[in-house]
Each structure stands twice: as C-alpha cells, then as structure tokens.
Amino acid sequence: MPSPIELPAALATTLTNWFDEREVVTPSINYAVFDRGGVVFQHGIGEFQLDGRTPQVDTVYRIASMSKSFEMAAVLVLAERGLLALDDLVSDHVAEFTDPVDAFGAPMPVTVRMIMSNSSALPEDNGWADHELGLSRDDFLAIIARGLHFAGTPGFGYQYSNIGFWLLGVIVENVSGQSFEDFARTTLLEPLGLADTRYSVGDYPESDATRIAHGFGTFDEGASWFDRPVVGTGIGGCAASMFSTVSDIAAWSGWLSSAFDRKNSDDTVLSRASRRLMQRIHTSMPAPADRPAEPQLEGIGYGLGLMVENDVRFGLIAQHSGGLPGWSSNMRWHQESGIGVVVFANTNGVKPGIAAAGMLRAVLDELDPPARDVTLWPQTVAAATAIDEAVRAGGDITVAESLFSPNLLSDVPADVRASRLATLIDEIGGLTASAAPIGDRLIWATSEAHVAWSITGISGELECRIELTPTEPPMLQRVEIERRTGLTALSSVIRHYRPLV
C-alpha cells in the first residue's frame, strides 16, 4: 500500500471551512478526502441526529443511488463466473419482460449491457421510483408483465432508469439463486471488509443506533425540521437502499480505482478489467444540469453504475450521486491517482455533487497528479534515444533509418527534414554541450507507442515527438521536431499524460 497523501495545512483549513461561505440547508454534512489507502481528511458540521453531535468518520448515512456501483459490480461478478453475458437479452433472464417494438412491429432487443449503461430507452423515473423502493418482487414482476413504455430506441441515447436497475436486481437473484442482498454481502461487502455498509438500517446492531444519521425534511429553509422515515427496502433495494460511512466509501472507491494502479494485481473479488469497464463511458450524456458551466469539464457519460467525467487537466473522474427523501450524497475520485472526495447530507436537495466536485478540484490543483501515467514500450524508449542522439550529434536522423517505417521519409524527405532541423537549432542558438539522460527529459505521451521529450538549446528548447507502428517489430512512423513554446493545440489534458520508462 502506498504512503497516504498529505494535505498541506492551508488546504486542510480551506476544506474545513468549505461551507462557511456557501449556503447549504441541511441538519448535517459529513465529508472526507481519501486516497487508495483510506480517509486522509474528514470533517463534519451540524447535527446528524439533532442532538448536538457532529458527524464523525464512522457516522452512517443512507447513500441512495450510490448503491448502483455495488449492483453493477455484482452483475459483473456473475459475468466473470460465466453465468451470464452482458449482451444477453433481458428477456432471457426475466420471463416477464417483453422487448419493445418499432413502428413496423419489429422487436427492439434490450440487453443487460443497455440497462447497466442507462441506454435501454426506459425513460427517467426518479419521481416515481423514490417512493416505490419497497415494492415486493412479485408486485414488481407484475408491473413488468403488464408491459413497459419505452422512450426511444434501445442502445441509443442516455436516460436514467431506476426500473432498469431493479430488473438487474431480479437478474442477479434469478442467476445466483440468492436474494440480491445476500449475494452482494457475500461476494462484495464481506470480502472487501466493508463492515459498516448495509442494505437496511435494521441490519445494524442496536448498539449502532447512536451513530446512524436520521433523515430530515424542511418546508421553511431549515428553520424547522421534520423526520423523514426511511423508505422501505424492497425490490429497489439493489439500486438505492444502502447505508454506509465515509470510511467505507473511501475503501470502496479506492478498490475501484485501484484497477488503474499499475502496481496492483488483485483480481480476487472482481477483476481489474471489469472494474475498469465500470469506469469508462458507455453512453454519452449532457452536462449535469445541477452544476454551473465549467470550462474544465470536457465531456461526461455514463459507465456501469458510475458517471465518468473528462477533466481537461486531470483526465477521467468517476462519480455518482445519491438522493432520497431525507438524504443526499456524492462520491467521486480521480481514476489515475485514486484521490477522491465523498460528501453526505441528511436531507434531500442539497446537491452535494457541486461541493464534492469543487473540493476534489481544489485537492487535485494543490497535489498536481498526472492525468495519466503511461509506461512506454521498451522499443519506444529505444527509438526516442536513437533520434535524440542523432539530433544532438549533428541533426542527421537518417542514422537511425533501420528503425524507420517505409512511410517516414516519403512523407517528408530526409533533406527537407535536415533543413528544417538546422533552422530550428539556429533559432535556439545551437544545442547545449551536455544534456540530462533522456529519461529525465520526457514531457508527455499519448500512448505506450508515443512520446515527446525536450532538447535544450542556448536560448530555447526543441520538442521532439515520435510514434511507433503496431507491427512486430514496431517501427518509427512519425518523427516531429518543433521549437518548444508551451502548450500546443492539443488538448491540455494530453500534455499531462506522464511517460514512464
């Protein structure tokens, strides 16, 4: 386990005071910063039972739709066991389900993957679903048997469907032969040591009652509060009923993001490949309506039980919110580093995703992790070294011609390349007499087959970029050398992909 990150004192103070100037109406907020090793900062404000006590790291809140990532992991466990495939038809696993038909009466098949990625064409249903979590399995299947209305073509377009996730819960039960809660507990929660994460408030021992946050509502902007009873857990429990703590969510998020840690080889509970599958965009979606326009947000989509954002500086961020009457939550993490934030509140409508996004951005800005680490092919390093030595020895890159793909000199002939390079070297006053090892001069990389590095001159720098072919052996298909002037027209996030040798 890597050493935990350390937050500078000034940043910790900023986080502690985060809500001082922000108007948020809720009895309490509990929030934490974490890395793959667990919580590194926690702060609670307000009273989670309106009895004077502030939230702590082990205070239990309902996490609502954050439960969906646990559900998707359960489905993927079954897929890895060969008991279902993501491209199976839903109707193959739920007899009561009927595929929609198009305008000509032809069936439009709905697959397990479509439901997992919110592209099934089942319409958004939050208003109805929040109050139907307690439906029994039989009552739910009776609704399914009567038929569902679809809004669009399955497989095309994003719509957030709770009823679709409930269908996935039925599939898990039908395939595993267990209740969804039992399957998730024995395959995920217990193996991962998430002892404070449960599907029902009644699953906690009586001695834990003093650390379980109560849900509240208000009609007068917090001047007074009334109790929100816990919406009963039934068929919808698989997707929205869970309770947890900031420390357990930190552990869960760290385990998911550890799939991107190149030093990690743990596939015991669920493979790294499946965990990565959860955290990539499957269905593109519009920018969230509950957050102001952000120049840092380059794109967003739904993965499998998680939303995935592309930040123009830090790359991919996985996140999901939860909301039920009496509860609001959000968890998010930077995929490459595993640094994340979780925010809980015990009333609905708080929109904790806004605060969580701001906090995570503040932490990332301060710690400055790369958007992605790229471990270069040995052949990429060897080719870069050969070109670097050729440039520094006089500028004739054809001394490395044995590495060239046939296209390289036909795209730009050798004499043109030599003339351009001579001009560039003159512009920077010639090259310095000595240089650091090339491994210390690597700048960025788009993939294992690509790298850019610098060469220092008397009054400036050159930026050299190469790209290799996918053939065996890999060959140099592109060599570009320019005067280095800062960011190019390429997306700035790419310039923060850190090459490793």
TrEMBL record:
Positions of the Beta-lactamase-related domain: 26-351
InterPro entries documented for this protein: AmpC-like, Beta-lactam-related, Beta-lactam/transpept-like
Classification via Gene3D superfamilies: DD-peptidase/beta-lactamase superfamily
One protein family per Pfam: Beta-lactamase
PANTHER family tied to this protein: BETA-LACTAMASE-RELATED DOMAIN-CONTAINING PROTEIN, D-ALANYL-D-ALANINE-CARBOXYPEPTIDASE/ENDOPEPTIDASE AMPH
Protein name per Swiss-Prot or TrEMBL: Penicillin-binding protein
